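Below is our example:

___
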Amino acid sequence: MNKKAGRRSSRKWMSVMLAATLALGLAGCGSGDSANPGNTGNTGQGETENFNKEGLPIVTEPVTLKVLTMRWGNMGDTFTQNQWLKDLEANTNVKIEWQVVSSNDWSEQKSIMLASGTLPDIILGNQTFSDSDIVNNLSYFRPLDDYIEQYMPNLKAAMAETPELKKISTFPDGKIYSLPTRLPARPKTKNQPVINKAWLDKLGLAIPDTTDDLYNVLKAFKEQDPNGNGKPDEIPYTETGLAPDFLNPFGITDINANSMLIRDGQPVFYPVSEEYKEGLKYASKLYAEGLIDKELFTQDATMTSAKQQNADAAIVGFSNQWTPDAVFGKWSDQYEMIPPIAGPDGKRYNPGNPNGMSFNRNEMLITSSCKFPEVAARWADQFYTNEASIQNFWGAIGTVIEKNDDGTYTLMDPPEGTSADAWYWEQSLRDFGPKYVSPSFEEKIVLNKEAGDGLKLEIDKLGSEYVTDPFPNVMYTAEEFQELPTLTTDIDSYVAAMRAQWVTKGGIEEGWDAYVKKLNDMGLDKLMKIRTDAYNRYMSVD
């Protein structure tokens, strides 16, 4: 047998074994222990004598639910020891059999699971199943509208207070199949400008306020050796590709990386806009003068990071980031977040969401395999209280959070040698799973303003008033999902290629009309119809 054939045979054998393992592991979903008295007489067709519609416990005799969630890399399942989750099991009589999978091999496992139709009772976390996974396999998941109405008073109250929760959760057929989240202590802004303040101070320069100021500052960074090592190694601006954030001063604020904006209440494909054109002309000018990294369009994220954390001296001057501390390594202290740069129209624009960067759907799904959907619904509803949510975002009260006598909540310091963010992921579901923290409750959360989530909220004050309305996280139909990949692959590839060409070689004025015509020939009108229809459906939810 040749090596290629051997590898194919090995992969086939592994796939067969993985499918068998999944089938065995998930067989009898929702049945719990065969000796479990909570299962007696339950046919899965509604409430039983064992089920309590209100109060705790949820069931008089224990019931076991299988819950699958995906975690990043090698994070593992330490979050299952969160004291709130332990108490929830004791208080509800709902026993959870956790099935924690790694993102490293989840793609193959997911494909096998969806092909077989063998699913656990509950899928948790919006990274586990995507919109298209759900929409294209809708029969695997229970519509939750009636369950929300009958068994989920906490979520109902949250949706009444914050209507965006319902908007983001409603599928194209008008039903809700997945549960949403509103994360606590999230900023309105996404990325914001960050500059090497040590370089500014050394050169006696003010923080840039306009695009003209930025040009002058970047020029000084290139020519005046601000890192003081006697080498012309300074890179005024670098990223992996020309990030949309670099075009923020021109009114381009894209938090979803899908080339869409909302302007005057209507969806806009901004790569055919005059603002985009002017932004690329500005970038081309800077590139021609060496103020933008020559490797901008050829480097990968690893190369970019190596420059941002260069061993011998800081060599990057300007960027757009979430916070500087996670990007620039040992040079982080040299960098400072600054207000948005004013564009040619005199206005400032910041990417983000005026309602907060905190909303997601697909945080929990109850599958058709689940024999106790009303139990699963009531269990899920326990997550939609303020205290439950903060404990599933940071960690349990008494372990990570201190509840103070004045009604406030303070995050404890992480163990020595551990970052706050890493500790939170170990101790909680963190970004994943259903949550709701009301805006009024957020005022009771006391965060460290110098690190992590607290630092981001401080930085947020610089740009929150300039945040624009983003193109929302809309939902597409199965038919639309079939058309989108072909349209977006061709259109996005062409847009990216022309962006690189115009920034590095110029010629945008001469080539603009032909570029727009080609995009129209590629089906831009079809793409915009799909996205506009999805946007209108989203906005019609009340």
The CA atoms of residues 350 and 465 lie 8 Å apart.
